[in-house]
Task: structure prediction
Amino acid sequence: MAEEIKEQKLKKFSTIQLLNFCLGFFGLQFAWQMRIILSGPVTEGLGASPFIFGLIWLAGPVTGMVVQPIIGAMSDNTHTKFGKRRPYIFLGALFASLALILFPNSAGIAELLQTFIPFKIPAITALVFAAIMIWIIDACVNAAQGPYRALIPDNMPVEQHSLANSYLSFAIGLGSVIAAGTAPFLSWAFNYQMSIPAQFIMAAVAFFGATLWTCLTINEIKKETVESKIDSEKSEEKQMTFFDSLKAFFASSPEIAKICTVQFFTWIGIMCMFIYFTQYAIHTVFGVPDLTSVAEDIKLSYEAKIANATNFSSVCFAIFNLVCFIVSLPIGILSSKYGNKIIHSIALLSMAIAFGAMAFTNSTNLVMIFMALAGIGWASTLALPFAMLTRFISKGAEGSVMGIFNIFIAGPQIVVCTLLAWFINQCSFSTEAGINYHYEYSLIVGAVVLAIAAIATMAVNESKIEE
Result:
């Protein structure tokens, strides 16, 4: 009865409203894209080995597993004049934007600190500071992301959930294309190489500005207008603790465990590429040796080649996300017609094939083609698992459920950041230019687990989801 009352109150969003709704995610993706593409070159320049780089990447999954469930549960029970979700979205964007500006300037900040602190600071301080900034960025992005997705079941009828998540996928794709493509475009069109700090400033401005706009223009459904007729039993349900939500999450349906399994393997595969693709571009495709322990003059001799490789990586991510942008809405339409699991399984399989093929080539043209193919799987991953899950969300627990589900996105990343990082660190080889690492191995691992995820998707019983 309570759910029927709430559904009657929720009106469908128009196309303009959906586009406006996803603008904040457009800005959020600027922050995440700079984090993915450029954190490797920054931390490697500060002396991070492949294993240390992997440990720094733990910021994402650890904060995702801790921050999103906690913030999600808190936002379910937050009632302010600014709304339930918007305070967390706004503050997450604010602090993440500040950290984005500071991160690429870690070396200069460490030197500045030496002028104010009476004892000598170890050289590693710059790397530690950079790691702290990455942790702040990831924690704050997670703090904003969970409540943002919870706005969908909060404010839209269930028949729009798949479409709304596809619009978020659309915004992520477009934001990523612009974020990743700006520096290469300026280099190609105007022979101007945008510096790494400038790219992070661009991301900070885009994230904060777009999020501010969302917070000012999206009106959350007020508690009193939606729930005034809900009985006392429903009120008690809304006061569930996080652990109650966790128990209810898995007790709702056996299909939830299957969807979580799909997410687990999917995100191991995706993070194999996300974490190491820029390093793969620099060291495997462009053949730059490892520079963490070489003299400064040798580093300078590779500066132009690294810039070209970084631009190439950005172009690949732009292509990857451009395809995501193009196919995100068609995927939502096709999934409504043919079912989520069939479309999602095909999309994941296309990504697995792309990753496997990239591991065996250093042709820049082929790598770009395979990244385009992988973008189909990325668009599906950003929408369809969430669309399947929303069928099981109890009213009043939207933030908690999104936070819990994020555990199966963040948890697998820990495997990549530790075991895979350690494995690549062991796979060094000598070249005429110096030591290098087999970063392409990460793509092979990614291909295998994505194939497993595609198979696991077919085990989901969609007839039960539709009940």
In short: Strands lie at 428-431, 434-437.
